[in-house]
Amino acid sequence: MAVHGTFRYKNLGELRQAVEALGLEDDIAFSDDLTPLRRPVVVGPFRTPNALGIHPMEGHDALGDGSPSELTLRRYERFARGGAGLIWIEAVAVRPEWRAHPHQLCLTAQNQHDFGRLRERILDWHGQEWDTEPLIVLQLTHSGRFTRPTALRQPIIASHHPLLDRVVGVDEDHPLLTDEELEDIEDAFVQAGRRALEVGFRLVDVKSCNGYLSSELLGAFTRPGRYGGSFENRTRFLRNTLRRMKKECGHDLHLAVRLNVYDGLPHPYGWGVDRGNHRRGDRPVAPTEPVKLAKSLVGWGTEIINISAGIPYYNPWIGRPFDRPVEGKQSAPEHPLEGVARLFRMAERIQRAVPQTPVVGTGYSWLRQFLGQAGAHNLANGRAGLVGVGREAFSYPDFARDLLCEGRLDKRRVCVTCSGCSELMAKGGPVGCLLRDREVYGKPVSSISQESSNQGGS
Fold first, then answer.
1. Which member of 81, 163, 217, 314 has the lowest number of beta carbons within 10 Å of its beta carbon?
2. pLDDT averaged over every residue in the chain
């Protein structure tokens, strides 16, 4: 497989040269002053202790009833002790039959207090190490076309898509969710929000990224009825759900959204894409709908927006620039730095559109030990409100501690974007870092270990 770019930079100067050689210096820049990472961030009535966050990264290690297992607790203990000011808990299905994996977390009336205990333990673990309290967000989801609550896929689709239908094995006769069924799903989200509030969660996310149900609806240009076609219709599910949560759960429940701003799929099937050339993303033509939606989200009560992009099952490099794809999958058709630049640009566009609402930026993990300098520059220049990492937290749960206290990251511990965690997910989980957490997640099934070690030591 051809690889468009691997991380071989021995110092920040070499990385800067690579950025400039690709003409990306307006999008990716670095600051030696890491002070912005230490600043608290106001999120509605809350305040984070610093500007570093952990994205919702699924571990596929829940118990059969959807409650957190000991392995789930281990992950969140490591995150909590690591010091990040924002911990965004991974996708939690609002009903068991809508999970994307048999061991995905799921919030029910029977196990809601287990989630309350998870929240309490995160606060306790963090408090044992830090004189602060992290902001915790609980992500709620419906898996849509990627639904797989058992060993077999059980796709639930809102619109037909010639590319993604093939990915999940549905034909043109596969039924679409009716408008009435979508209303019932809205009910389930509101009920889940109420349960989350009952056990102590104050911030919940209606997941709207990566092609899952709410995200799919944003690009449902070809769907008939009240949930497809126009911008107003395609955003109806998200609008209704957020407004109803705010109205029916009361002022104690606050709202968040992890939002795809670019699907990377051809129009009329992709959200946030240029209609003439979907591969251009937001450059040179910037699609207006994601910005319009971000402004609407704030109007509907959303107090923090977390940026994502791409469909992991189809074009994973868009949301997670990598050195090595999952075994058997397509390698990226672009240099990873181009993907990092796109994600930085998109976060900036949304942040400038909603300057009073913090936006969690993404795309940092590929930068390895230099992610802090890139994040500090983006924060200082108003290009994002917080720096979020995903895979990096699997590999290096203490990343925030080292940035905040030491002013640097240890290159021997950073994520090397080898796609080992994605490979575990593709093989059924549980998911973690094959290289840095091998005693739990086992020896790599391929040459990942040696390849990644070489890259991390450069």
1. 163
2. 92
3-state helix, strand, coil in the chain (%, to 5): 40, 10, 50
Q: Are 386 and 52 in contact (CB under 8 A)?
A: yes
Q: What is the CATH number of domain 12-456?
A: 3.20.20.70
> How does residue 318 score in pLDDT terms, banded at 50, 70 and 90?
very high
> Given phi > 0 = left and psi -120 to 50 = alpha, else beta, which region is 435?
alpha
Neighbours of 458 (CB within 10 A): 14
Q: Which helix (H) or strand (E) holds 350?
A: helix 336-353
Whole-angstrom Cα distance, residue 369 to residue 374? 10
Task: Say whether 456 sits in a helix, a strand or coil.
Answer: helix
> E strands, 227-298, where?
254-260
Return the H-helix or E-strand segment holding 89.
Answer: strand 86-93
Whether the per-residue pLDDT at 457 is higher than 80: the answer is: no
Among 126-135, 163-172, 270-279, where is mean pLDDT lowest? 270-279
What digits encode the pLDDT tens for the residues 57-114?
A: 999 999 999 999 999 999 999 999 999 999 999 999 999 999 999 999 999 999 999 9
Stronger pLDDT, 418 or 5, i.e. the higher one:
418
DSSP letters spanning 156-217: -BSS--TTHHHHHT--TTSPBPPHHHHHHHHHHHHHHHHHHHHTT--EEEE-B-TTSHHHHH
Cβ neighbours of residue 303 closer than 8 Å, sequence gap 6 or more: 43, 44, 203, 254, 255, 256, 357
User: Is the distance from CB of 436 to CB of 395 less than 8 angstroms?
Assistant: yes
DSSP annotation of 332: P
Find residue 308's DSSP bridge partners: 260
Distance CA 234, CA 18 (A): 40
> Residue 298 in contact with residue 237, Cβ under 8 Å?
no
For the four alpha carbons of 98, 441, 334 and 21, in that order, the dihedral sign comes to: positive
